[in-house]
Amino acid sequence: MLELQQLQLHLSHQKQQQQHCFLLPFSSLLFTCSSSQSIKDMDSDYGIPRELSDLQKLRSLYQPELPPCLQGTTVRVEFGDATTVADPSDAPSISRLFPNTYGHPLAHFLRATAKVPDAQIITEHPAIRVGIVFSGRQSPGGHNVIWGLYNALKIHNPSSVLLGFLGGSEGLFAQKTLEITDEILSTYKNQGGYDLLGRTKDQIRTTEQVNAALATCNSLKLDGLVIIGGVTSNTDAAQLAETFAVAKCPTKVVGVPVTLNGDLKNQFVETNVGFDTICKVNSQLISNVCTDALSAEKYYYFIRLMGRKASHVALECTLQSHPNMVILGEEVAASKLTLFDITKQICDAVQARAEQDKYHGVILLPEGLIESIPEVYALLKEIHSLLRQGVAVDNISSQLSPWASALFEFLPPFIRKQLLLYPESDDSAQLSQIETEKLLAYLVEVEINKRVKEGTYKGKKFNAICHFFGYQARGSLPSKFDCDYAYVLGHICYHILAAGLNGYMATVTNLKNPVNKWRCGAAPISAMMTVKRWSPNPGAVSIGKPAIHPATVDLRGKAYELLRQNAASFLLDDIYRNPGPLQFEGPGSDSKAITLSVEDQDYMGRIKKLQEYLEQVRTIVKPGCPQEVLKAALSVMGSVTEVLTAMTASSTNLSSL
Fold first, then answer.
1. Which domain, by its residues, includes 240?
2. CATH number at residue 258
3. How many structural domains is the chain composed of?
4. How confident is the model over 371-406, as pLDDT tens digits?
5. Is pTM, for the whole model, over 0.70?
6. Which residues sit opposite 256 in a β-bridge?
7. What residues have CB less than 8 Å from 50, skipping those under 6 apart?
8. Nearest CA to 492 among 185, 143, 145, 193?
9. By three-state DSSP, how is residue 4 classified?
């Protein structure tokens, strides 16, 4: 009894010590609140020093690389030609809604010694106040954007201030801030998660929200507002930039492409912070499952991967780990495959493997697959429409159209319940909550049992195990690539603000090469926008609002072609590949995503090269030049113009399909 009392006393004393340990750091945190709020109203967990493992401590000491153009205190800025949008038919709608931020030029950041006649060096660096906010789901590397921006601010003027908004956009609206300091950053450098500031995933869409953001920036006298996020968050950033310009608010808005989905891709953005890490961590998990499947030889693993509507994560993980099958949402949508078509496709694969005496396998599914199936997508549209009308969940089924009701009742109860979840703020389904892997495993088992009874399948019993990989990876320590990429983007954000640019996104191209060859720049967010059109009724065309829309897997791209070349071998030969755990040093630490490496990108570099060629033509072909030179220039330019006009028309027609 005495020993028990001593143990309880010891534990009580230890608990008090722990409480004191967690309370002490708050004295070092600098909070700024609106007059209507107090410290007690805020979540006091934000910004507290982390307890780091030995590996985390080692990673916190890693200093990300900077490309030559950002090294030192002097950076040269070169502005290119005015930008446009990919689809010329979208230009009128976008320019009408973004008159103050549309058509602005690209910005290229060059080393100070670069001999470019039109480039300028920004010599004055007054102290500025900048706000930064996490918007959207956490993605590995986000903290390094803050670190990069903070370092750039302090290098150019130690009196500059960086304020982090607590709790994402909600903190932005409520003016809840944390001043970033060296001490606060010390345990968040090269670390995963968004727990330094917290985040939200809601859009900044209502008039009240936009006005609240405007009021915050005016009240805090911010010179810049940096929004870290994906397609939705950067669309919001563009809207805020335009609103601020109209309101004559001095705050400049900058976007940063950070999303694990990898779907913020366009001619200016090659990949997103976090995508590299997510795919590497998931690929290790998948390859472990592949090894397990090959060892037991009796289970089929259905693995759903986080990534929203696009299948970029699923494609990259397939190329890294070589599972037996992957069903991309883009393939399903392009071929208009039904739920029964997909089920048959998987069953045929199971049967083909059974004929080789193989009763195991690994099948990858993107979480957006469910919305790519035509009849399920139409069903979701009806359900969401009824939910927005206020129809009770219990009454949804009775108010569906006959065909939708029939499909709904056919589905297993657990899927019906998940389809009834209220849609996200962007009107999409709650994809992470819909267990597509379990649905397909169930349907495949039913079909295989049917084939057994019919005598067409004579193999062993089909056994399925289901997984959903997403949360396991998005809080990971970021890869070396994501650490560098995010840190560089943070530095670029400062130079965008120093150049007085509003409504721009920080960009880095030539990413498949080493850091010393990366090209740094900025592009107007409005140049990345498109306008969706659809026909609700025959003869009628509805036009959506301009937005950055998620980029889907290019079924004509090199990465998809690489998958097609190996699909048959992956299916039957079990050539599983294990990339191993995420590496920070040594072999594998500098590897890049396969989908990034195989594509031929560097759009910004090519634009700059074209400008150099055009400048050379202007230099050579001047009034007074020889007649032969002028004729040759006209002939070549005429041919080039004709070809480019035809290509542009073809591209526009394809994008409208």
1. 66-274+478-534
2. 3.40.50.450
3. 3
4. 999 999 999 999 999 999 999 999 999 999 999 999
5. yes
6. 228
7. 56, 187, 188, 191, 195
8. 145
9. helix
